[in-house]
Amino acid sequence: MFIPAPRGKNPAVGGTQQRSRVWDPPQGIHAMTMRRRRRRSAAPRGGPAPGYCDVTRRYAAAVSLVDTICLIACTIVAVELRLLLPFFDPPTQIAEVVAPFGLIILAAWLAALWWRGAYDTGQMGSGAQEFVRVAQASMLTAGTLGITAYLFRYPLPRGFFVVLFAIGIPALILERIALRELLKALRRRGLFRRRVLLGGDEAHMLDLHTVLSRESWLGLDVVGTLPSGTLTRPEFVELPRFGSPAECLAAVRATRASLVIFAEGSFERASQFSLLARQLEHESAQLVVVPALTDISAQRMTVQSLAGVPLVFIERPRAREARAWLKRGFDIVGASMLLLLASPIMAATALAIRMGDGGPVIYQQRRVGMGGTTFEFLKFRSMVVDADALRVNLTASNEASGALFKIHHDPRITPVGRIIRRYSIDELPQLVNVLRGEMSLVGPRPALESEVSRYEEHVNRRLAVPPGLTGLWQVSGRSDLSWEDAVRLDLYYVDNWSFTSDVTILLRTLRAVLSRDGAY
């Protein structure tokens, strides 16, 4: 049972110690055993706790159902669009030809998604790996069906085949994105959440607790701790303590937690964790170990077992890959298309700025690019003409930390500027910088020379890749982030670059702009 700890003086917190909930193992086990005996017929050992099985597996089942509906809809749409395509041979009895093959396509596509791990509960809900697996499974399905139809000489219309996968793959990915956003919204409202136990030393547990409390969309509620030492932080005062990490089995049964996260300092020897894993074999709780690594993406880590010892191999940082031809080619194509699409908006913006105060439309400023080189940074002018001269008088009003300068209600911003900054329209001329090769679509934001001169040594790592029109910290809060968080996210991007991450950041940028998160 839970009993209040006796009051006393605690020099670590300065004064009378608050009441904290301490778990007495012998009494707790006895009380729990009596409760279990009273409801043995209703809940077997380990029990179907409201957690991992009831949340993530139900979500995976819901995703598979929506995938099925999406694929059926795409098949019907592909048949109808094929009838409208003029550049294929005229269709003959397309519905009769596709109908017998439709169930095979649906079954094969769903089987490929399952085989490639698109329904793996450990990958669903966060990260880009889920979308990568969906794309891989879809391409595998396309290749397999194409070869099968050729070998068996089945008259599958080429137009239908091309249209099906041209709309089916994006539809599946967009559907997964929509379901993920729905899941995050439900988690923020208190639904689809999981109970979590934290284990380890206080410092590492505090780091975990801070992240889980801040990122409510993860849906993880800390219901107890398994500290390897004493706890003095106020964050843990109201949380039940279940002794050391060795008491994990009793803690899981008492709290019906579905996730146990062990941080650094949980066990003195690796064999202790193996013993605990065996004890939890018949429980519904999932074990998670947080390695002593930070800001390293999962794509750079590979786990291998050597002589029974699991080793984590870390790839070298990927800053060099972020300067390769693939990224540059993507920048040229993407910037050209965006300039073409945004040209009406840019023309209207230029006219509004000129009519507003008669000043210049484009604002140019010297910024620092890759390797410390400088270039002329282009923006639509959103402030008064002498904004740089007025900045000296506003230094005391700076609301940002570190090398940044930000004022929420900057008096230098013009009425037109306030509108275009809200939707980041003022950044569109930087597409020209991208075409020149001075910037990239995605990367750390280009800094002023005065800001770079105040960089600490490790912050210069931001200059290892081309600066970007958007970046990881822009889609993670934009101006609301502190300087330290912005630097951490930029350095994470530099070291862990991938083409998939660039595409993901661009998609998240669209959402951040439309929602106006952190823009001022």
From TrEMBL:
GO terms for cellular component: membrane. One of its GO terms (molecular function) is phosphotransferase activity, for other substituted phosphate groups. Keywords: Membrane, Transferase, Transmembrane, Transmembrane helix. It is found in: Membrane. Residues 327-514 form the Bacterial sugar transferase domain. Residues 1-21 are annotated as: Disordered. Pfam families: Bac_transf, CoA_binding_3. It is a multi-pass membrane protein. The chain crosses the membrane at residues 65-85, 97-119, 131-152, 158-179, 330-353. InterPro entries: Bact_transf (IPR003362), EPS_sugar_tfrase (IPR017475). It comes from the Bacteria. PANTHER family: COLANIC BIOSYNTHESIS UDP-GLUCOSE LIPID CARRIER TRANSFERASE, SLL5057 PROTEIN. Belongs to the bacterial sugar transferase family. NCBIfam families: EPS_sugtrans (TIGR03025). This is Undecaprenyl-phosphate galactose phosphotransferase, WbaP/exopolysaccharide biosynthesis polyprenyl glycosylphosphotransferase. It comes from Propionibacterium cyclohexanicum.
